[in-house]
Design goal:
With 619 residues, the protein is mostly beta strands. The protein has four domains: 185 residues, Jelly Rolls; 147 residues, Immunoglobulin-like (Sandwich); 144 residues, Jelly Rolls (Sandwich), CATH 2.60.120; 78 residues, Immunoglobulin-like, CATH 2.60.40. It contains two helices and 42 strands. Strands 4, 6, 7, 10, 13 and 15 form a six-stranded antiparallel beta sheet that branches. InterPro entries: Secre_tail. This is T9SS type A sorting domain-containing protein. It comes from Fulvivirga lutea.
Length: 619
Amino acid sequence: MRYCLGFILFFTTQILFGQITYSPIVKPTKKSKNTNARTENTTINLPFWDDFSFAIDNVPSDSLWFESDGVYVGNGLGANPPSIGVASLDGVNASGQGYTGSTTGPTDALTSCFIDLSSLTVADEVFLSFYYQFGGNGENPEDSDSIRVEMLNSNEEWITVWPRGSILDRSGEFVQQLIRLDSDNFFHEAFQFKIQSFGRPVGFFDVWNIDYVYMNSDRSLNDDNYPDRTIGKPLTSILNGFTSVPAKHYRTNQNQIPEYEVTSVDNPNDERQPYDNFYSAQLITWLNNVGDTSEIAPVFRDTESVQAPNRNTESIDDFFTNINIPEDQDSIFLNVKTFINPTDNVLPPTGDYDLIFDPIDFRINDTVRNHYVLKDYYAYDDGSAELTAGLNFSGNRLAIQFPVPPTVEDTLIAIDMYFPLSITEPAGRSVDVIVWDKVDTIPGDIIYRETFTILRDAKPNKFIRYEFSNPVAVADTFFIGYRQNNEGVLGVGYDIDNNSNDKVFFNIGTLWQQKPAEDLKGSFMIRPVFGKFVPDDVTGIDDQLFKNTLIYPNPTTGVIHIEGEIDRASLYDLYGRAIETSKPSGDKITFDLSQQPAGIYLVNVIKSNQTKTFKIIKK
């Protein structure tokens, strides 16, 4: 699989908020569709509708969008969106590169599939509408930046139809725009429209957010509402801002009543439709290697209504009454489903659905799911990085604040960190992992420090665990992070869907600074790990466990064989990048290095949760 590294754009694919630099994650290069290859599978009919609630892997649905490379669908960049999931356009393409070296130009675009309008005319009053937002939670576009809509006519020419002299809204609110198809040249069997942003085509700049894209006939300029009640903001954390807490640290008095928001884009007149609030859950517990699963059936809370454009905040006050999270388990996994049951798809007089919308399903955006873990680590992030974030120079320090309950005695044994491939290769670089105590409200004295070489798994969102040589006792409040030992940008995975700005501190000289609240909201993918410390020199455990393990030939010109009673083995290059992982077939594992360059490789052999590393030479 090929990767585009974009080293030419080293200084231009970054964005700086304060002293923290944000960079795109380099992703596998995708093949673009052949724009001349129109088929029945890429031609659709009206109505066209996308509220971006059914995107997969943060990518717009290819059943609606012919081209959308670079467009990100998620919850983090939209500020108070009409519904969960918005499409965000910026200056980075799908591979994590900027588009060109120009100071301004076309950037991300949403291009629809071919739409057959051949049976319609101007008299059928076809309108395209959508909500757009300037900046949102991302970087605001400059005054010279813009967004426009183009439509493909019967001569295969792209015609700009908006804004055509009108002034773009730069308030930072979501604003709806309606555009009438006013030319006969647009009514043909291969019509397309394109929402195109223009800005600095060299990085994570100039964000425009898009939601509720709708195109249909028999509309007017006043046709700006839809029979849709929806969840506009996901469930807040039940763990006081965390997505994961060590099971040993969990206390029921730390529980936080979760909340979510319900919005409406229905008629702003007080003609409200009701919706029912529900939640359900699955609770999986483990104690002494014995698991148990409990299903919490849907719980009806109440019936409410919301008048557009207002937003209702729904608090699940009885959440911990119906979901009992025990304090005495080794690990707990909680999957929560929150949903509303409105009359979105119901015809009058019970509901307000109109057959003009058929077959649009307004119920898809009525459900959100959350996953919580109580195991052996703290996490503010959700395990998925949208960007990288970090500091730039040797000696710079980054620290994340974490608590320890007053009645808990525990030790740090490791740190989990995710360093994605960005504008620089993180693997092979050196950091000092540091644990600080607290003085006043900032990091104080160093209580532990150890140097590690950064490793990187080739798969996205894969944490690497860096195990300490000695246990670290911590109490009350501590900080954990790293000191950068090399010049240049070093970015940790950054989750923009969960905000912990107030827990982040950095030091680029002699003074600690707290990350500003107005900085790009999100969480660093850095997780402290607690547990029982097992020293490396326990009675020759490696020799005993792996005494019958054979790896041959070494050196090798290609294939190596691993024999012995082992659980699995992983192959890495010298930079720590994972190449392959395999389990035994019979009593043997085989790795093929024939396509790898000559050099030194590492094989991690694992048995009974113990690991031994072997060095392999490829000729």
